[in-house]
Amino acid sequence: MFANHLPLPLVLINLLGVAGIVVWHLQGRSRPTARLIVQILFFSVMTGVLMLAGFVPHRSGDEQFQGTVAYLATSARVLWWTHLAWSLIGFVRIYIVLEKRPQEARLLQDLIVAVVYLGVALAILGFVFNAPIGTLVATSGVVAIIFGLALQNTLGDVFSGLALAAGRPFSIGDWIALGDGTEGRVIENNWRSTFLLTGAHNVVVLPNSALAKVGLTNLSRPDETHQIPLLVRISADHLPERVEEAMHAALLRCDRIVQAPLPVVALKSIDAVAIEVELQFRVRNPAERVPARNEVISRIHEQCRKSGFLLAQPLQGFLYAPPREAQVTPRSAGAL
Asked: Which numeric CATH code is attached to 164-218?
């Protein structure tokens, strides 16, 4: 329909491209769905105008145009490729929102966005400006090798971050424990590092390459509850059944521990001195371990006094006997 009046569709495509950019920015990042609708709408209308005009954006033929028409054709192609890139990126971001992916999925999102922009930039250089793509790719490959050798550690952190994001051993907000004893809640995960907020309210920054090499335990999965064992030694003069009942009663009076599932009282061993009892109880999250343990110890002490139980001495007290002091016999006054 526009074939005989090509400048008109070129002007229309340029106006649509510029208007789409303005409307896209006015939507803001807080409205990804509206942004995607705007991107698809403007891109579809621009594509329809190109098809009706017989204008192919992926095939350069601007030699037939002269003056202003040539500039309009070039800008129309650039705007079409730009809107194509934004539409693809919008689909990626909407997919992440709809799938409720964790916050650290932005690493994969950024990688996809970078690939889309790189591909569109090469397409514009090759299809619009007739640049030698093969030479550019070869040159960029040499430059990439040089930068790769110079930034080995940084690139190792980047690819380790991508591997962690793909494997998803943890999410933002999870409490994790590392093999070296470091514990904390994950508060941020970027291209290079992972940030942990420890129980001492300090922020530990871990390079992703180091985090990918150590074993870690996710204390927030399958849920936030965390089990704590506590060993208690009661004098062997008391009946084990009464000891078990007293420990259950003490645990049931604790407010800081989880009562479903019920805490466990395990009679581990008995000898002539003590009955060893292991209390197994859960807390709502790892951050409540210290106050919960303090409360349990306080309730156990109260229950022992109420029931007349005596706490047994620790086993180390019987295994260790301090050496006797050597007795020094003073010399007699007349000794030589």
From this structure: 2.30.30.60
